[in-house]
Specification:
alpha+beta, Fumarylacetoacetate hydrolase, domain 2, six-stranded mixed beta sheet, 4 helices, binds manganese (II) ion
């Protein structure tokens, strides 16, 4: 088969202990899944979490720099546990991700009731660690992000409003989850701005670490 235009390379994420990478189909993200972050975003405590998405090629693989995006002067970090979906919609593994956000654009879209795509789904907006294959234990422990060695976000995955199982069940009401889907499960409080030159490090207990530089 030849196509009318060139086919872009399949975005992939490395898998720990394997030479076979995870092919990314699409990226779903959960909004407002930690109560303290929902409050810092001005949300109503009664509103449940919700989904938005990023394109598969927003992935930034481990070890790559993140270019400071166009069209923003308020790029925010959001450390998140990431669920990787495998065959039959089952959990394949977990990773550490950062949901990068053009907060200034997002605030403008919220005020006008407009969609978030340009605030969330931009190029290189989804840094991720390698995927650790699922061992039967769903992560519940510490989640943290530091910038230039200073802690910005620090919480427990157990504090999520929707658990991993509930996120998968809720997503399944809206879409058929397929192998290659990634779900960024929401961020705890402490989101703040990044600048060019910042070194970002993050960790989810029992899952792994992430590190990248904003250039
Ligand atoms: Mn997020």
């Amino acid at each position: 088969m030849t196509y009318a235009v060139s086919i872009r390379p399949q975005p992939v994420v490395p898998v720990e202990g394997s030479d076979r990478p995870f092919p990314v189909r699409r990226i779903l993200c959960v909004g407002r899944n930690y109560a303290a972050h929902r409050r810092e975003m001005g949300g109503d405590d009664r509103d449940p979490p919700f989904f938005f998405s990023k394109p598969a090629d927003a992935i930034v693989p481990p070890g790559a720099d993140v270019p400071y995006p166009t069209a923003t002067s308020d790029l925010h970090h959001e450390i998140e546990l990431v669920v990787a979906i495998g065959e039959g919609g089952a959990i394949f593994g977990f990773a550490v991700g950062v949901d990068l956000t053009r907060r200034d654009l997002q605030n403008g879209f919220k005020a006008k009731g407009q969609p978030w795509d340009a605030a969330k789904g931009f190029d290189a907006s989804a840094p991720i660690s390698a995927i650790r294959p699922f061992d039967g234990t769903i992560p519940q422990g510490a989640i943290a992000l530091s910038v230039n060695g200073q802690v910005r976000q620090q919480a427990q995955v157990a504090d999520m409003i929707w658990s991993v199982e509930e996120i998968i069940a809720e997503a399944g009401k809206l879409w058929t989850l397929e192998p290659g889907d990634l779900i960024y499960t929401g961020t705890p409080e402490g989101v703040a701005a990044l600048q060019r030159g910042d070194a970002v490090t993050g960790e989810v207990e029992g899952v792994g670490t992430i590190a990248f530089k904003v250039v």
